[in-house]
Structure formats: structure tokens, C-alpha cells
Amino acid sequence: MSNRTMTIYFDQVLVNIGNHFDLASSIFVAPRKGIYSFSFHVVKVYNRQTIQVSLMQNGYPVISAFAGDQDVTREAASNGVLLLMEREDKVHLKLERGNLMGGWKYSTFSGFLVFPL
């Protein structure tokens, strides 16, 4: 991935009950109003650059994670949040800066309904 701001695309889905995560766009779309749990874990490549990843809700950053240690081969950034979402709200991950280690085995994104409203 390049250093320019971009959506993080995933190449595999392990569980997608209800098909509310669109693999082609890597966007989760809420099927109903409720409280949702989201978490992510990303690994940066060894290139002496800091990465910043943001979880975006309807185009706005909600939480971010950073990794920037220059003395390790690989470093991970993780974060999680509970969000109140309306039906059709969208969530995705955005690479704000840096480069990620490729492949679904290194970076993950998870979201699910905790409590319907």
C-alpha cells in the first residue's frame, strides 16, 4: 500500500453472516440501528515509517491507531470501539499514512451487532 490516504482493502472474509461486509469495497454496512462492536489489528512493514489507521464511520474518523517504532522488524497497531449506528451507516478502515504488511493473515477487521435498538 502507498503512503497516500486510502481505504484498506481485505482479500478474504472469514465470517460474514448476513453479508453486511462487502469484500469488494471493504465496507461494513449496518443492517439495522443498534450498538456495534468494531476492532482492528494491522501490521506495518519494516521501513522506518509510522503508520496511522483510522476507523471511519460515514466518512468521519472515529478512532485511530499508530505504530512507529523504528527498531523492530514488524509492529502492530490495534484499537476497538462500540458505536451507535443507524441502519445503512457505513464503517471501513483508512490508511492515513505509512505502509502495511499485505495479506489477511497480518491485518484484520471485525464488526458485529452487540445490541439492537
UniProtKB/TrEMBL annotation:
BP GO annotations: maintenance of synapse structure; positive regulation of synapse assembly; spontaneous synaptic transmission; synapse assembly; trans-synaptic signaling, modulating synaptic transmission
Lineage: Eukaryota, Metazoa, Chordata, Craniata, Vertebrata
Protein name (Swiss-Prot/TrEMBL): C1q domain-containing protein
C1q domain location: 1-117
Any one cellular-component term (Gene Ontology): trans-synaptic protein complex
UniProt keyword annotations, A-Z: Disulfide bond, Glycoprotein, Secreted, Signal
Localization terms from the record: Secreted
Pfam families in the record: C1q (PF00386)
SUPFAM superfamilies in the cross-refs: TNF-like
InterPro entries per UniProt: C1q_dom, Cerebellin_Synaptic_Org, Tumour_necrosis_fac-like_dom
PANTHER family in UniProt: CEREBELLIN-2, CEREBELLIN-RELATED
Species of provenance: Pan paniscus
Tree of life domain: Eukaryota
